[in-house]
Design goal:
It is a single chain. The protein is an all-beta fold and about 200 residues long. The chain has no helices and 11 strands. The protein has a 4-stranded antiparallel beta sheet, with no helix packed on it.
């Protein structure tokens, strides 16, 4: 409730709450959620105008959805399922992933086929000693993590401008008989200058 002197009440942490306006003649529905929070005396902080770019796509961002299907490569070989290059002046986050095996001869979790998510695909031939960078914890995927039509949400894999990110697959020991590999990577790009100054990769 607002004190008689008209000063907005303090919310926890020393912030003053500014309630939503109520149309004249309409009864108040009770305490309203603050529209903004303003530091009270002796309290330091920031007024948050939007969610950080790692949590949500800003209005200046661009959504991406890349997907593809490729024939299962020969045993011991790699193939690129889908890929995209980050535009200049943008960084981004992969927020949705999917990888599937279509056909016979593959058992989930057995390691006959492995997928990787590359955050910088430098050498698409996967030659010896290549400088390709794999996303941490996505270097040895041995099971389907999501369907192409219904990808799995993740917290986010950071990607940087002018780097090519990709979903790739290696056939370890599955006999080729007309099978296909499918996959999808979804997320968004954002202007680099919207990142916090202490953002690190």
């Amino acid at each position: 409730m607002t004190p008689k002197n008209g000063t907005p009440p303090r919310a926890p942490g020393g912030f003053r709450a500014f309630p939503s306006a109520v149309a004249p003649g309409k009864p108040s529905p009770g305490p309203a959620a603050p529209l903004i929070a303003q530091p009270g005396p002796g309290v330091q902080g920031y007024v948050i105008q939007r969610l950080p770019v790692q949590n949500a796509m800003p209005p200046q961002g661009e959504d991406f959805e890349v997907h593809g299907y490729v024939a299962l490569p020969a045993i011991g070989s790699w193939a690129i399922v889908c890929q995209r290059t980050v535009p200049t002046g943008r960084n981004g986050y992969i927020k949705r992933i999917a990888n599937v095996f279509v056909g016979g001869g593959f058992e989930e979790g057995q390691g006959g086929v492995i997928w990787q998510i590359m955050i910088d695909l430098v050498d698409p031939t996967f030659g010896a000693g290549n400088q390709n960078q794999v996303a941490p914890f996505f270097d040895n995927i041995v099971a389907s993590l999501g369907a192409v039509w219904q990808p799995s949400p993740i917290d986010g894999i950071r990607v940087r401008e002018q780097q090519t990110f990709a979903l790739v697959v290696k056939n370890v020991n599955v006999i080729v008989a007309g099978q296909f590999i499918g996959g999808r990577l979804g997320g968004y790009f954002h202007p680099i200058d919207l990142e916090p100054p202490n953002m690190g990769f």
